[in-house]
Amino acid sequence: MSTASQHQDVSVLLAAKNGLVYLTPNDWALIVDKAVRMKFRAGENLVQKGKRTHGLYLVLNGVASVQIPARGTSLEVSAGEVCGEISFLDELPATAEVIAKEAVEAYYLDRTTLLSLFELFPHLGSRIYHSLAGIISRRLRELIDPAVHAKPVSSPKLAPSPSIAPFPKKD
Fold first, then answer.
1. pTM of the full structure
2. Are 105 and 37 contacting, i.e. CB atoms less than 8 angstroms apart?
3. What radius of gyration, in Å, describes the C-alpha atoms of the chain?
4. CATH number belonging to the domain at 3-144, selected among 3.40.50.1820, 2.130.10.10, 3.30.300.70, 2.60.120.10
5. pLDDT per residue over 61-100, tens digit each?
6. End-to-end Cα, the chain, rounded Å
7. CB 3.0-4.6 Å disulfide test: which of 36, 53, 106, 150 passes with 84?
8. Contacts 24+ apart (CB under 8 A), 64-71
């Protein structure tokens, strides 16, 4: 893959408001270099319910439907968003189907590659897990209250850092 194409991919991933928002441009460059780029046709599964993902999918372009049969609902993932994260985190079978609604390109990062990157760059692991926690929290809130999905999401990178005050002394 050309360097120009990798730079464009990094730009897409960095711009995502609902993706791995705590990653730096250098983190993304490393991930893009190590990940496998995959293409899915409309109707093809990125993730199959009941099967382990053994990694994460990072959508570059296109739209996929996340179908949750137990809830009778579906959500969508698009450019810059992640899927397969629950199976990646708990190493159990996927909890939902993720099906391409149109042609989708995604990076796939397998568990072994990610864990080796985390050993070399511990702060990368911290930023990925922090981002995944935010993604799962947001998605759970969307399932509980779909009106939340309509509200704009602000990037944590733009939020001011709160000052940390010491705990008050107990008498």
1. 0.81
2. yes
3. 17
4. 2.60.120.10
5. 999 999 987 777 778 999 999 999 999 999 999 999 999 9
6. 64
7. 53
8. 64/40, 64/98, 64/99, 64/100, 64/101, 64/104, 65/97, 65/98, 65/99, 65/101, 66/96, 66/97, 66/98, 67/96, 67/97, 67/98, 67/99, 68/95, 68/96, 68/143, 69/96, 69/97, 71/143
Q: Where are the alpha helices (DSSP H) in the chain?
A: 3-15, 25-34, 85-90, 111-120, 122-144
Per-residue pLDDT tens digits for 119-131: 999 999 999 999 9
